[in-house]
Amino acid sequence: MAFNFSTFRVRAFSAIVFAIIMLGGIMYNQWSFFILFTVIQIGCLYEFQKLMARIEPNYATISSVHQWGTLLIGTLFMIGLSPASLKIGPYSIAYYGRYVLLAVIALVLIIELVTRKFNFKAVTTSAVGLIYVSMGLSLFFQLRSIMADSIFGDLGFAFPLLLIISIWINDTAAYIVGSVIGRTPLSSVSPNKTWEGTIAGIVISVFLITKTFGAYIPINQKVIFLVSLVAAVMGTLGDLVESKLKRLAGVKDSGKMMPGHGGFLDRFDSILLATPFVWLLIQLLH
C-alpha cells in the first residue's frame, strides 16, 4: 500500500478538527461528555441500520416506527445509563430515561404487532445494533465515573481519554507504517491493512501511552499499559468487524461525516468494540 500524501493531508486536517471537538466534549464537563457520546451513538446506530438494510433484504423493509423507534430507544438507553449527577429538577435524567425507555419499547412493539409489520429477524437485528452501538458507548459513562471524585479533583476524563488516544495513535501509526513498509495483508476483509502496520501500530501506541500518559495523569503505569494494549488490539479487531459489514453491504464507507475518514461507524468502529473490553479489564483490576 503506497503512501499517498494528498490523502494523508486530508485525513490529518479532518482528524485535527475531529480531535478538537472530541477533546472539548470529553474534558469540558459531564454534560458535554454526555451530549458528545449520545450524538455519536445516534450517528453510529443510524449508519448501522443503513448497512443492515443493504445486507438483509427484510431489514430494508422495516417500518418508519421500527427505524426511528430503534434510534429513540438507543438514545433513551444512553440517557438511562447516564451519570446520576446529571439532573433535571430533583431527579437525574437517568431516572426519567429508564421509565420512558420501557414505555417506548412497549409502544413500538405494540404498533408493530397491531399493524402486522412485526418481523422477528428484523427486531433481532435492531437488538444487535443496540448492543453493538448503544451498550458499548454507554460504558463510557461508567469509565468517566471511575476518577470523577479523586483526591486530585474531577479526573473522570482520564480513562475515556486513555482509551481514545490509544486507539488514535494505533490507527495513525498503523496507517503510516503500513503505507511505507507494509507488504503482508492482515485480512481479506480489509486488504489495505497489513501485519507490519498493525503490529507497529500496537507497539508504538502502547509504548507512547505507557511512557507519557502517567506523567500527567495519576494512574498506575501497569494499568495504563494494560488498558492501552487492550484498546489497541480490540480496536483493530473492531475495525475489521466494521470492514466486514461494509464488504457485505457493498460500500466503501458507512457515511460521509469526515473527509478522508467516512462516517460515524468508520470513525468509531474501533471504540465500539474496545470499550466493553477496557471496561471489563478495569472491573477485574479494581
Question: Can you characterise this structure?
Answer:
The protein is mostly helical and 286 residues long. It has one domain (5-285). It has 9 helices and 4 strands. The chain has helices at 5-27, 30-55, 64-80, 93-114, 120-145, 158-181, 195-212, 221-249, 264-285; strands at residues 87-88, 91-92, 185-187, 190-194. A two-stranded antiparallel sheet has the order 1-2. It has a two-stranded antiparallel ribbon with strand order 3-4. β1 and β2 form a beta hairpin. The protein is globular, with a radius of gyration of 20 Å. It starts with a helix and ends with a helix. The model has no long low-confidence stretch (mean pLDDT 89).
Helices and strands, with pairings:
Layout: H1 5-27, H2 30-55, H3 64-80, E1 87-88, E2 91-92, H4 93-114, H5 120-145, H6 158-181, E3 185-187, E4 190-194, H7 195-212, H8 221-249, H9 264-285
Antiparallel strand pairs: 1-2, 3-4
